[in-house]
Amino acid sequence: MTTTVQGLVSFAANDPAKLVDITIPEPGPRDVIVDIKTCGVCHTDLAYRNGDINDDYPFLLGHEATAVVSEIGKDVTHVEVGDTVILNWRAVCGQCRACKKGEPKYCFDTFNASKPMTLEDGTELTAALGIGAFAEKTLVHELQCTKVDPDADAAAVGLLGCGVMAGIGATLNTGEVQRGESVAVIGAGGVGLAAVAGAKLGGATTIIVLDLNDKKFDKARALGATHTVATEGLEPEEVAEKIRELTGGFGADVVVDAVGIPATYTAAFYGRDLAGRVVLVGVPNPKAEITLPLIDVFSRGGALKSSWYGDCLPERDFPYLADLFAQGRLPLDEFVTERIALDDVEGAFERMKGGDILRSVVEIPQA
Questions:
Q1: Which of 173, 186, 159, 317 is nearest to 256 (CA)?
Q2: How do residues 162-198 score in pLDDT, each as one tens digit?
Q3: Where does the Enoyl reductase (ER) domain lie (predicted)?
């Protein structure tokens, strides 16, 4: 039996998304239908809406969500009706070459729902990141659901579904920050500030945040930054020099580029210590290019890493970080700037451009 609900759908590049009726099919054997409680407004959703991901319109937007399982397929064992879950877009298959090599964070065949959701006329929807959570309900694979305490602040823990996990994982998982190390984070948006929180969790004693906008620095300090640097008007080498000045002249053990443009990556590369690690978590434009002297790549040693989804494994990382939030050791609620209704997502996209919003979070009343 199908279900009709309201969902936010993008029909064409750069056009405002529209709240329309969508059809949720009966779940397949390992699919589940979930009632969405909250969904963060992520830059990735704006990228889908603007055609920066691909042109598989229409898109059902939204992916950074907390939900309650309301219906399950006949072979589902991972969750039960009534479970509160965080949705994820890395439901690892366990069978691809990455999984078999013991690197499931690079899984090439992650699970999604077995059936598409549709418009009322039968037009198939492309669910953003295989989730599509700007809706009253959505259809996902059972392994896209990670159980969480139903009493937790859904708006806060739901952010682990994407941006906050990307930033925390960039320092903890990809950067492998150790106690007593120094970390520099370039870019103080939501992902960058999550990287700051991750650096603090990892025991870094020097945490430097660099950004064009010094209005973000109070929040950075609240999350663990020990130093802040305004980079307006600075060249990449000057930014790197600022990092070296704050790390005894050596550079940081880990530099996280949470912006993803050639200038910030160059600054990250030269702002790290010898044998330090550079972590790229900001998503670059596909046409962006960088030129570095090969001798500098060779002579500086260390590691140049990319961080996809914070190199997370949802079943391992989401419960751990949600528990830290419950213990008061990880202030996930600090990332929630505003709580909005589903029909205000377009407004949130506009406010996002001003740089003052960490996360707008849609809250959907439960029946």
A1: 186
A2: 999 999 999 999 999 999 999 999 999 999 999 999 9
A3: 12-362
Identify the H or E element spanning 43: helix 43-50
Architecture of the structural domain at 167-307? 3-Layer(aba) Sandwich (3.40)
Helices then strands, counting H and E runs in the chain, come out as 11, 18
The encoded tokens of residue 63 equal: 């992916």
Residue bearing tokens 């590369």: 269
300-358 pLDDT, tens per residue?
889 999 999 999 999 999 999 999 999 999 999 999 999 999 999 999 999 998 878 89
SS3 76: coil
The domain made up of 3-147+337-363 is a member of CATH 3.40.190.10:
no
Q: Which two tokens stand for residue 170?
A: 């960039």
Query: What are the residue ranges spanned by the domains of the chain?
Result: 3-147+337-363, 167-307
Buried b (16+ CB within 10 A) or exposed e, 310-348: bbbbbbebbbebbebbbeeebebebbbbeebebeebbeb
Direct distance between the N- and C-terminal alpha carbons of the chain, in angstroms, rounded to an integer? 20
